[in-house]
Structure formats: C-alpha cells, structure tokens
C-alpha cells in the first residue's frame, strides 16, 4: 500500500507541477506533510543535496523520499511516479504542439502560466529561507522580543558572502557551494 501511495503522490506532483523542480517543492512539502515520510528539516537537506547532485531536483528528492519510505523499491517507484507524467505529456503534446505552434491561444496560455510558476518558486524560496535563516523550532510566524535570538547569524553571513561572490566575481557556483559548506562547518 505504501508503494501505491508513493507512486500516486509523486505521479500527482509530476503531473500538476509546472516550472521544474523548484516549482514542485511546495507540492512535495504538502504530500510529505500528509504522509510524514521525512521531517521538514530533512526535506530542506534533501533539496540542498539534490541541487548539488547530478539530475533534476524533483527526481533526486523523489528518489530519496521514496527510499526513506520504502527502501530501494520505494525510491524506484517514487522516481518513476514523478517522471512518468512528463514523459507521457511530452509524447502527447509533441504531436499537437507543432500543428498549433502559431495559434494565439497557445501563446496566451503560456503567458498565463508564468505568474503561477513564479509564485510557486517564491513560495519554495520562503520555506527554504525560513529553515535556513532561523534557528530550529522557530517559525517566521512567531513573534519575539529580540530578533537576534531567532536569526542564525552564521547563515545570514554565509548567505551574504555567497551572494556577493556570485554577483561580483565569476567564480563557479559549485566552488561557492563548497566554500559555504566549509564555512558552515568551521563557524
């Protein structure tokens, strides 16, 4: 039963997510909250690891969550579930897309989808930022007398340093990720 639940959940995520892996993160979080496959902090760690490993974020996340919930077979089933909708949709759309490539409805539909994708990505960024910048067990929704008790200053420092390096230099982002990881360990 767990395998069927994994497959259907990740099939739904793959089917209803537009905009790539980052747009899938809110849906993955929602399904994970419903079935409690992994903790929220583990999910954020999975996203970070998925960004550094080869392959799409959604596929890597599905594989890890599936493995955690149902072993090797669970990882395979979740991965197939998240990738199968894309494969099927590409096969179907490819046959129709070129027939109607100049049709104005196609163009308008794609313009309508763009803001939704941006909203999903911003939502995922806020959830990741909340986990990254605030100490464990504290939410952005909570009020506090002293904001410095809430904020993890080392994470803010690493974020600002990484952002400056990305914007002001031509250092490869992989090197910046490695430097940030080392700083995290040292600090």
Question: How does this structure look, described?
Answer:
With 187 residues, this protein is mainly α. It has 2 domains: 2-140, no CATH class; 152-187, no CATH class. Helix content is 79%, strand content 0%. It has 8 helices and no strands. α2 (21-35) crosses α4 (57-97) and α3 crosses α4. The protein is globular and about 55 Å long. The N and C termini lie far apart (44 Å).
* Terminal CA distance: 44 Å
Q: What is the ordering of alpha helices and beta strands? A: HHHHHHHH
| Spatial shape | globular
> Which percent range fits the helix content?
over 70%
Number of helices, where a helix is a run of at least 4 consecutive DSSP H or I residues? 8
- Strand proportion, as a percent range, falls in under 5%
Would you report the number of β strands? 0
**Total individual domains:** 2
Query: How big is the Rg?
Result: 19 Å
Uncertain stretches: none
Spell out the key features of this protein:
single chain, 187 residues, mainly alpha, 8 helices, 0% strand, globular
Fold topology:
Layout: H1 2-16, H2 21-35, H3 40-52, H4 57-97, H5 104-133, H6 147-150, H7 153-168, H8 173-186
Helix pairs in contact: 1-2, 1-4, 2-4, 2-5, 3-4, 7-8
Protein name: Chromate transporter
Family: Belongs to the chromate ion transporter (CHR) (TC 2.A.51) family.
Keywords: Cell membrane, Membrane, Transmembrane, Transmembrane helix
């Amino acid at each position: 039963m767990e395998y069927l639940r994994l497959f259907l959940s990740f099939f739904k995520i793959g089917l209803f997510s537009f905009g790539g892996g980052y747009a899938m993160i809110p849906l993955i979080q929602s399904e994970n909250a419903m079935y409690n496959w992994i903790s929220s902090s583990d999910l954020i760690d999975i996203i970070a690891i998925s960004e550094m490993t080869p392959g799409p974020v959604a596929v890597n996340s599905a594989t890890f969550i599936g493995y955690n919930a149902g072993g090797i077979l669970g990882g395979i089933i979740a991965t197939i579930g998240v990738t199968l909708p894309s494969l099927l949709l590409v096969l179907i759309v490819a046959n129709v897309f070129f027939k109607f490539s100049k049709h104005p409805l196609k163009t308008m539909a794609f313009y309508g989808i763009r803001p939704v994708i941006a909203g999903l990505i911003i939502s995922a960024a806020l959830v990741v930022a909340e986990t990254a910048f605030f100490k464990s067990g504290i939410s952005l929704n909570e009020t506090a007398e002293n904001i410095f008790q809430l904020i993890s200053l080392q994470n803010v420092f690493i974020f600002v340093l990484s952002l400056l390096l990305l914007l002001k230099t031509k250092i490869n982002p992989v090197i910046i990720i490695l430097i940030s990881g080392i700083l995290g360990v040292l600090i």
